[in-house]
Amino acid sequence: MQPTLNPVESSQADRILINRWSAKLLHRYERGQVVLLRSPHDPDLLILKRLIGLEGDWVVVPNHTDIETVPQGHCWVEGDNPACSMDSRTAYGSVPLGLIQGRASCIIWPPERVSWVDSHAPTNRLLMTNQQALQRTDSSQWFRRR
């Protein structure tokens, strides 16, 4: 998750606070959040990735010129450093939402890095959200009916 977490210029590894309640009890996920999840390939391994797409979203897969639709009950996750990240682009594809264990809230150590974890969704990765697709479908049906 470099450069968001553990930047090269930092002498110590970041320690982060994970909010497990929002994932386990409320099932509230938003695009751009950094989430803690079990690796789809190794259930003993916990990984941090940025949530790019939710179920029904259309995601552009870089270097493949493909468009993936995230299936029901799944999400699309990516690391912030595409050159060396195992994520939905390279290894996992769509990941079941049930693997999400929590979301990264803030960096609590080292003291000079204490801050909220930035939740931004890259604009060039998500082609269309499920909501936009539904609106487009509804408007095209409206024109056909008239």
Automatic annotation (TrEMBL):
InterPro entries named in the record: IMP2, LexA/Signal_pep-like_sf, Pept_S26A_signal_pept_1, Peptidase_S26
Keyword presence, Membrane: yes
Membrane topology of this protein: Single-pass membrane protein
Localization (cell): Mitochondrion inner membrane
Domain (Peptidase S26): residue spans on this chain: 3-63, 67-109
Taxonomy, superkingdom: Eukaryota
UniProt keyword annotations, A-Z: Hydrolase, Membrane, Mitochondrion, Mitochondrion inner membrane, Protease, Transmembrane, Transmembrane helix
GO CC terms in record: mitochondrial inner membrane peptidase complex
GO biological process, one term: protein processing involved in protein targeting to mitochondrion
Main localization category: mitochondrion
One MF term in the entry's GO annotations: serine-type endopeptidase activity
Mitochondrion recorded as keyword: yes
Similarity comment: family membership: Belongs to the peptidase S26 family. IMP2 subfamily.
Classification via PANTHER family: MITOCHONDRIAL INNER MEMBRANE PROTEASE SUBUNIT 2 (PTHR46041)
Protein name: Mitochondrial inner membrane protease subunit 2
